[in-house]
Amino acid sequence: MRHRLKDVAEKAGVSVKTVSNVVNGYQHVRPTTRARVEEAIAELNYRPNLSARNLRKGRTGVIALAVPELDIPYFAELARHVVVAAAEQGWTVLIDQTGGSREQERVAASGIGDHLIDGLIFSPLALTAEDLTGLDGTPTVLLGERVDHGPADHVMIDNVAAAREITTHLAGLGRRRIAAIGSQRTVEGASARLRLAGYRAALTDAGLGYDERLVAPAPVWHRADGAAAMRDLLASGVRPDAVFCFNDTLALGALRVLHEHGLRAPDDVAVAGFDDIEDGRFSIPTLSTIAPDKERIGRLAVELLVGRIEGDREAPPRTVTAPYRLELRESTLGR
Amino acid sequence: MRHRLKDVAEKAGVSVKTVSNVVNGYQHVRPTTRARVEEAIAELNYRPNLSARNLRKGRTGVIALAVPELDIPYFAELARHVVVAAAEQGWTVLIDQTGGSREQERVAASGIGDHLIDGLIFSPLALTAEDLTGLDGTPTVLLGERVDHGPADHVMIDNVAAAREITTHLAGLGRRRIAAIGSQRTVEGASARLRLAGYRAALTDAGLGYDERLVAPAPVWHRADGAAAMRDLLASGVRPDAVFCFNDTLALGALRVLHEHGLRAPDDVAVAGFDDIEDGRFSIPTLSTIAPDKERIGRLAVELLVGRIEGDREAPPRTVTAPYRLELRESTLGR
DNA sequence: CCGACTTTGTACAACGTTGTAGGCAACGTT
DNA sequence: AACGTTGCCTACAACGTTGTACAAAGTCGG
Fold first, then answer.
1. Residue B263: which of B290, B219, B288, B233 has the closest Cα?
2. CA gap B242, B247 in Å, rounded
3. N or C terminus of chain B: which is more exposed, having fewer CB within 10 Å?
4. pLDDT tens-digit map of B132-148
5. Which 3 state secondary structure label does DSSP give A84?
6. Can the peptide bond before residue A285 be classed as cis, meaning omega within 30 degrees of 0?
7. A283: which chain B residues are within 8 Å (Cβ-Cβ)?
């Protein structure tokens, strides 16, 4: 059976509030009393009832992390960092999968488990800025590029610069026909738009023309979509000598298809990705990529959110930019 | 601002309890009253406070899933299935990462967020049966092979049979020097022991001798460990012509090292894994593996847990076995 | 040894919800 | 007309905790 403050109080011969004071580490409890209470707590294996505490305090100590899909490695890795950063500050993280659908995302945004959470770290795909303004005021931090000047705090990396940098790397290898995989025409495709912009800027920098036939769309960014896009590129006869994929899973799918066609990376086609997921360090060949500082992103998101929860909720939204690194491996450099 | 039952009640001109009755769908509320209340609810955008409801009802509607690491794809995929299965029955899932350490696992087991959760689905690595008996009686379902006859419900697949089957497949290809990667001598290594047993049984079936030098240990089962183990095997000069890796990430690491050594899979060394993670369908070569029915496992775990929460908590522990499939791909069959 | 102040502890109310008990109409039955 | 029955609704208490107000005990300076 679970025990309550009352049980501990009776056992220690003090009032309920005194036990509460001990549990919460208040001063003004005589050491002898404190010891007696602590003994009773240990003996009964007392644990506070969080629902009651939350009801009283108006806080739950739980924040939610909403991501499109956990089995996209990037989000799984990010989740780990968020959980760790939150735990350091005594917060529990509830992880929610939205599947990337607008409906699910709206449900998540408007209060997973309703009053269960104090704040939300949210990596939206489909949601628009307007969807977010309708929130009841749950403190929210956005990850990624979806909403440019939304009503919430925001952690991002400079997608345009990163995409430009890695495309420039491809051009620097002497590649002239650099393809891109992952473009999207939908509203959801904010990241895609930014990365495409970086890609185009790099082409201009390198004095290369922009050829629309070298840009392959991918509705979502799974391995299978990268594979399909690469197949289309090869079938269309445009013969790229390099491909910049807008994320790593796309790139892994593309590598697979190149292999199926008997083409070698990077000899025939250099391949670069974006995200630096674990797989890319062991793929054949290993994958050159943009490595966002995920640990930093997770930590910043938690800091912003906790600041919002405990501080001024009406302060203007802040946008924080996290650093990234160029991680060059075999898929562009060879062995 | 958030509204309470009381606000709705005042607006609708009824008592607080009547609003509660409407919210909970009780009968004996006149349609006209119900309509008036519902209108007020909509107008105020009322959401029940779960902490208060939980306090009153003694239930939170939240179950936790504790896994070692989310960025091990197997667990991420499993998590998705658990979340989906739970959502279908109206339960929210809180995902917790234990990191596989005994200490963290014990914390998780003894009540993540204390009274916040009604039950726990738990995939332990390091915890022993005794650790679990100490629980306060939070309904728990175990996943995986750790605790054979522990005090809790259990969902598993037949590891011995599966390992035997895939090893037999390797032998059936005519391979004579079949190595194994992933053995563990620690208490944590229950899965490792079972899979090793299946491997040995298959060797016997095939009339092959057991050669200890062909069995490489791996303290944890990440890609890097598979790579290290494969390197050791090659360096030791035992030259296997096949490897059964105890999970897919180990196998991907092994494939990588074979490639670095200029060996081809499956021509020189056939490679098989275990878990059927997404990566294995796009790796080069694609990976032959044991495919546990993860969707089924997730669903069974939720069903067992909910049954435990809502039903008889004292019933004897049940063990349920989920099916698996042999998924043969290029790493053993070639193209 | 007294008054003022500090320390230590207590009683009570409140957080928002739901279960229990019961009240008041309206109805049909004797 | 008196009665029990049913349908609809309300008042109250309780879940376990903590903030507020205050009482009791201890300490200190004069």
1. B233
2. 15
3. N
4. 655 556 788 989 876 55
5. helix
6. yes
7. 256, 283-284
